[in-house]
Structures are given as structure tokens and as C-alpha cells.
Amino acid sequence: MQRFPIPLNALHAIEIVARSGALKPAADELGVTIGAVSQHIRRAEARLGVELFERTPQGLRPTASLEEARPLLAGGFASLADGMRALQRPGDSVLTLTLGSVFASRWLIRRLPHFSAQYPGIELRIVATGRLIDLATSDIDCAIRYGDGRWPGVRTEALGCTTFSPVVAPDFPHALEHPSDLGSVPVVDDTATMLSWTRWFEAAGVPMPTLSGPRYSDPILAYDAAFAGQAALLAVDRMTDQAVNDGWLKRPFALSASTNLDYWFVTSTQRRIPRKVAQFREWLLAEMGA
């Protein structure tokens, strides 16, 4: 019997579709078209003589036989990824981290000299993106993600960033004496944020007014608007602490709201934790005071 009757690229496509329930994530990750992924699945089903997916209105659902095999496929591709990293990176010197642009720019960048001084033998490479990259099959070693921490196939450790509040520039040209005043000044509409103005006003015990102001889909532009004095911004306190301490921003109200969302240090459960990742984790938790 042929050892691999289905090409590895097709197996990889099947594993991604089984995990995500859609063709597009597999196409994006493998750099092929959606049609090519669909063709991989059809050919694999023909060669194996079984259906791998149920076609439902909610997407593609793995059949029982594929669901049983999926952990083996995922583990196999994770091992292949580890093997590639071992071939491409002799030693343990390069650490690749993925995280969102806000944590990278507002907290991490200014502290990287501390990490380099403590671990001069580790070269840190940063992939700043809001996309959730699969840590089991990519060349990413670890991640910092914002959310509720409930992502499949990963270990998570909270970093203690659960409070949030409005911030403005020190020269913000509008008076803010009461939370209701936010209804009469420009407020950033950050379409990418997971923070809730409704939740903050509930914590303030004040009915939420109608808010209006510039809209941004890029969180860095939203922060820039606040720094420029254009509008008020709702932000995670830990991400604005330094700017507030340095006098670049101020909190007009002595009130923060809490959420179940947090920043998390994330690693894959399907891969071992190498020494460089353990060292970065130890440094990060110490710096965050987590």
C-alpha cells in the first residue's frame, strides 16, 4: 500500500478545514485558491473511498472518521513544523512572537531592551497582526492575544489587564467634568476594539449618551487620534499607564471598569515549550507583575 496515498499538502488542507469548518482559512494558510482546497478534498475522498466532510448550511463538518483522525493529523503537522524549525534554525537563538499592534506598540517595544539585556543570546522576531495564527503548524513560537482566553489547542496564562477607562490628551479642547459630558465631545469609534462603552457607563452608574466621533478600523490610528487631542478613547489601562505617567495622556475620570477579557500569553498544547519560550514567558510575567 502506498504510504501517503494523499499528498501532504492535501492532508494539511483537510486538517485546517476540519479545524475551522471553512475552505478560506486553509486557502489563506497554504497560499492557494479556495477552488484548489475544494479539489484537494474531493480527490482525497475519491482515493480513500469515504466522505470526509458533511456539507451543512453552517459550513463543512468533519465526519466521525475524520474527527477521530484529526488529532493525529494535527500532531503530525506540528511535528513536521518542529522539524523544519530545527533544520532552519540551528540552536535555540530565534524566538518568533505574534501579537496585536496595540500591545506591541504601547507596552512591549519600549521594554525590549530589558529582555535583550537579560537574554542577549535570544533574537526576538515580532509578527504584529490581529489574525489568530495557528501555533501548532506555523513557525510562530508563542503569542500574546487579547480575549477571553478560550481558544482551542493552546495553553493560556492571563497577564492581568482586565480594567479599562477613557483617556484623552492633556490639551483635549473640551471640558470633561462628568461622564455624561462624553456625549458632547468627539469619541473615537474603534471598530476593532472588544471593549464596551456600555460596560464603562454601567460601572460609572450613568446612562450612556449617544457617542460620536472619528471611526477607525486600525487600533493604532485610534490611539494616535487620542494622542493628537482629536477625541477621547476607551483603552485598556495597562496599555495607557506609561503614556499617562509620561504626561502624554490623562484619565479625565477616576473610574475604571472591569471585564473578563484580558491579554494572555499563549503556547500550543501540541508542541513542547523550548527553553527560549520558557525564558520569554518568565521575563514577560515578571515585567507584567502577573
Keywords:
290 residues; alpha/beta; Arc Repressor Mutant, subunit A; D-Maltodextrin-Binding Protein, domain 2; 5-stranded mixed beta sheet; 3-stranded antiparallel beta sheet; globular
Provide an overview of this structure.
By secondary structure, the chain is an alpha/beta fold. The chain folds into 3 domains: 8-82, Orthogonal Bundle (Arc Repressor Mutant, subunit A); 94-158 and 262-288, Periplasmic binding protein-like II (D-Maltodextrin-Binding Protein, domain 2); 163-258, 3-Layer(aba) Sandwich (D-Maltodextrin-Binding Protein, domain 2). It contains 10 helices and 12 strands. The protein has helices spanning 8-20, 24-30, 34-48, 64-88, 101-108, 112-118, 197-204, 219-227, 237-245, 275-288, and strands at 53-56, 59-62, 94-99, 123-128, 142-147, 154-158, 163-167, 189-190, 215-216, 233-236, 257-258, 262-268. Strands 4-3-5-12-6 form a 5-stranded mixed sheet. α7 (197-204) links the parallel β8 and β9. It is globular. The model has no long low-confidence stretch (mean pLDDT 90).
Q: Supply the CATH class of the largest domain.
A: Alpha Beta
How many domains would you count in the coordinates? 3
| Percentage of residues assigned to helices | 25-40%
What is the CATH topology descriptor of the largest domain?
A: D-Maltodextrin-Binding Protein, domain 2
Could you give the count of β-strands?
Answer: 12
